[in-house]
Amino acid sequence: MEWREVVEHPSLQDLPFKIETNADGYIMMVAAKNKHRAYQMHIASWFEQHGEIKKAMQECNIQTSDAVKIADVAWASTEFLKRNKYSDPYQESPEVVVEVISPSNREKAMKRKMSLYFERGAKEVWFCDDDGNMRFFNPQGELQRSELFGEFPKHIDIEVV
Fold first, then answer.
1. Can you point out the beta strands (E) in 22-154?
2. CA distance 63 to 90
3. Torsion over CA: 24, 60, 108, 28 (sign)
């Protein structure tokens, strides 16, 4: 299926999980757990709290050379948004793409996804693991901290006190 068909198909509306497509046009479903969504919300909220409102998106769809991938969170500059508005899917990657990695994600698959985002122009890809530990990457490799948002924490705490 083409992406437009996927997002407009009546039976695929309001699903409790996210969907992506693969290079053959098949739909892949990914069940999102509450902990996963809590990390997503925390990351997107951080951007909003730091003056980046309207530039952070959850469930951002990006056309890649291996079909449409859904980033858990993405941050786009004003220039990116002027060029792309809110098209579906984006034909280029926003500058920062964040993936919340659940225990079922395979490292090889996540590295592949990271390379697809860089191929489409991402400046950084961030991974948040199931314990809230953050890893930051640019096309050259792993970073100690984000070069674009150096104040972003290396660990996210979502535990209820």
1. 27-31, 56-64, 67-75, 96-100, 124-128, 134-138, 141-143
2. 6
3. negative
Please compute Rg for the chain using Cα positions. 15
Q: Give bridge partners of residue 143 from the DSSP assignment.
A: 136
Cα separation, 57 vs 85, in Å, equals 12
Domains and CATH numbers, the chain: 33-143 (3.90.1570.10)
The C-alpha atoms of residue 21 and residue 146 are separated, in whole angstroms, by: 29
Q: Are strands 96-100 and 124-128 parallel, antiparallel or unpaired?
A: parallel
By residue count, the chain amounts to 161
Residue 158, pLDDT above cutoff 80: yes
Q: What is the pLDDT of residues 119-129, one digit of tens each?
A: 999 999 999 99
What pLDDT digit, counting tens, does each position of 29-87 carry? 555 677 878 999 999 999 988 876 678 999 999 999 998 999 999 999 999 999 999 89
- In Å, how far are 51, 54, 114, 128 from 142, measured between CA atoms? 26, 27, 12, 13
Residues ≥6 apart with Cβ < 8 Å to 42: 156, 158
